[in-house]
Amino acid sequence: MDPLTRLNAMVIACRRCPRLVAHRERVAREKVRRYRDEEYWGKPIPSLGDLDARLLIVGLAPAAHGGNRTGRIFTGDRSGDFLYRALHRAGFANQPWSRHRDDGLTVQGCYITAAVRCAPPDNKPTPSELSTCRPFLVEEIGLLRGLRVIVALGRIAFDAFLKGWAEAGQAPPAARPVFGHGRLARLPGDVWLIASYHPSQQNTQTGRLSAAMFQRIFARARRLVGSPL
Predict the structure, then answer these.
(1) Is the Cβ–Cβ distance between 112 and 75 less than 8 Å?
(2) Which of 206, 205, 209 is nearest to 196 (CA)?
(3) For a tag on the chain, would you pick the N or C end, based on fewer CB atoms within 10 A?
(4) Residue 45: CATH number of its domain
(5) How far apart are the first and last CA of the chain?
(6) Which residue range forms the structural domain that includes residue 211?
(7) How far apart are CA 23 and CA 92, in angstroms?
(8) Beta-carbon neighbour count of residue 3 at 10 Å?
């Protein structure tokens, strides 16, 4: 078994956080009316991409009726629609939508993961849950040998990545990066960290994060990564 297949199998089988296990499974049983005829995934969400990726995208956690329903990260909700439109425009995805696991989506040159792999109540994982899930991110950082750019979606993902970077044994930056939309920090080894607001409806529907603002994040990532793969 290759390292990525093994890691994703470990993610899917994880039951380390009782609160998250109970929530994700209750949501999968009870569903919501608009998805009542669908079978929910109801397990931790594996990452998407391959280990040759030069761009790493770190989100917060699956949505209860998005990834927790579809079984694919950033799939089946408005945040995913917002993300994949930007990735497609920047040449990192073959299509600008992600609706279910068999919709034909592929990503090129990027790897998409999350700080927490289970849908948390109210989209708020606890510090303990973030810590418990971090070893998966740490292992991914170690496996992504060609990594050049990281885009962290939201402050929690930003902090989770920096902790994972340190725990993976990577050299620390000269000064700790500060979160702010569009802020750029250089990490040792000529790796760049870009901070972005999370594409949640709370941000996109209030105008805090516009499509143009988000597209500029990934246009910058494309320039730093290099030409399309």
Answers:
(1) no
(2) 209
(3) N
(4) 3.40.470.10
(5) 26
(6) 3-225
(7) 32
(8) 12
